[in-house]
Amino acid sequence: QVHLVESGGGLVQAGGSLRLSCAASGRTGSRSTMGWFRQAPAKEREFVARITWNSAYTEYADSVKGRFTISRDSAKNTVYLQMDSLKPEDTAIYYCVAGPVGGSRWSTYESWGQGTQVTVSS
Questions:
Q1: What's the rounded Cα separation, in Å, for the pair 112 and 39?
Q2: pLDDT for residue 1
Q3: pLDDT at 110
Q4: Each residue of 39-52: pLDDT tens digit?
Q5: Do residues 49 and 37 lie in contact, with contact meaning Cβ atoms separated by under 8 Å?
Q6: Taking Cα atoms as reference points, which of 24, 23, 14, 16 lies closest to residue 121?
Q7: pLDDT recorded at residue 78
Q8: Of 58, 50, 54, nearest to 34 (Cα)?
Q9: Within 13 Å of residue 38, how many CA atoms lie on the same side as its CB?
Q10: What is the CA radius of gyration of the chain?
């Protein structure tokens, strides 16, 4: 079982930046794909970004491409999501996920965190 803890959420004005962190512990698995999903009020949960175990491959949702950057520090078992040029529509709870396969669907992940709130004011 992998335990994931997100941090770094908060309130920011439109155009600002935030960096989310997700620390993994437990049976992390050296080759887990890690990623981020988000869920806004009254909306379905959606894929944001993912990164493979060796950082060789990243994938982003079209809505965040060019503004968000995912990275990981394998030595620290931590994944980051740098969010720039934030928009009010980025307001959501952001969830960190991990899994041996890991794609753009929530069901492809085995572990997820409790979520961190990101609020972007206009």
A1: 13
A2: 74
A3: 92
A4: 999 999 999 999 99
A5: no
A6: 14
A7: 94
A8: 50
A9: 22
A10: 13
Report how far residue 122's alpha carbon sits from residue 113's, in angstroms, rounded to the nearest whole number.
28
Q: Which amino acid is at 79?
A: V
Q: What is the structure's pLDDT at 29?
A: 65
Angstrom distance (rounded) from CA 90 to CA 20? 13
Which amino acid does the sequence have at 66? G
Buried/exposed code over 57-93 (b: 16+ C-beta within 10 A; e: otherwise): eebbbeebeeebbbebeeeebbbbbebeebeeebbbb
Phi, psi dihedrals of residue 26, rounded to the nearest 5°:
90, -150
CA angle centred on 93, ends 90 and 97, rounded to 5°:
110
- Residue 52 CB neighbours (<10 A): 16
**By the 8 A CB rule, do 6 and 22 touch?**
yes
